[in-house]
Amino acid sequence: MDIVLIYGGNSGEHEISILSCTAVARNMSREHDVHLIAITKDGRWYAQNDSQLSEIRANQDSKLFISEDEDKRVSVIPGGGHDKAFCVNGEYIPCDCVFPVLHGTYGEDGTIQGLLEMAGLPYVGCGVLSSAVTMDKVTTKILWEHAGLPVVPYRCLTRRDVNDSKKYDELVKEAITSLGFPLFVKPCSAGSSDGASKANNERELSASLMEAFSWDNKVLIEKAINAREVECSVTGNSVTSSDNYPPSVLNGYGPGEIVPTHTFYDYDAKYNDPDGAKLEIPALLSEDQLTFIKRTAKAAYAAVDASGLSRVDFFIDRDNGKIYLNEINTIPGFTSISMFPKMCEHDGLSFSLLLNLLFEEAQLQFEAKSRLVTSRC
Q: Is the pLDDT at 374 greater than 90, yes or no?
């Protein structure tokens, strides 16, 4: 099978994408022919030399990088399909499946998913709608609330609110009154905790809101839970199914618990500090709690029409034991310390088998969609 891995991207998670794709490429079965496409921080696409793949497989300390050779600029051709979707200097990259190992903006927000749909290619992960929906934390909460799932109490502010100072002050005051300090402030559509911070008073809240609005035009204010952080990996397809095709079944792996050594599980703890958190798999919970989290993770996955894979994150209130959904990541981290592959591996699904399952699921999803009627003629 010809697999195209895409990494980098125009987002705040560019570097993490490179690390994730390095781990994916290193752990792929040798039965696949791998082709690398890298996206620069300003959005230019380049095909990469096969020597990079050989190097990261031979040297565990090496990682992918982006070579900007103008003779290897990539064009994406709508309707090109598996043999003519990616064009490089007049030649085509064969492709049976794409894995966009891209986090955040332009990676898991529905934009590249739409491009791959137009190109006529199977791809790993959620479709356009679920990718776009889950990138927005407030929209995700609304859908989960509608499905009767537990979410952390919150308020949302927009750039429009900021421009009306009287309304803005009223909304901030209402959030403080209804939620109480401390509060977490997050950009609605950023990932890896970019722009997120904790506010213990009005002065800190003002600074946190300014920081969050520098990342996004919508900002989430949440009640700060004295929380344990638990995650669950989910694979499968919540929309289409096949009785004879195992990847279609929704499966939950883990759950695992993150025990951060930082104030909260921020960007630095996730990716820069090797001692930023301790990972417990399975989470140190009762069997009933583990079952509830796994069941709720699959329900949350289905509520947003997810497919392929996602990591569903939870908070458990230390004070009263209540369990809340936090967020869902449709292209979760795949680095050497990332929870998604670790939880799958703990439950018997090795990294390479996990990748094979994701490629099979992508093709199944593509074939199911291809059978739909698109014209009356």
A: no
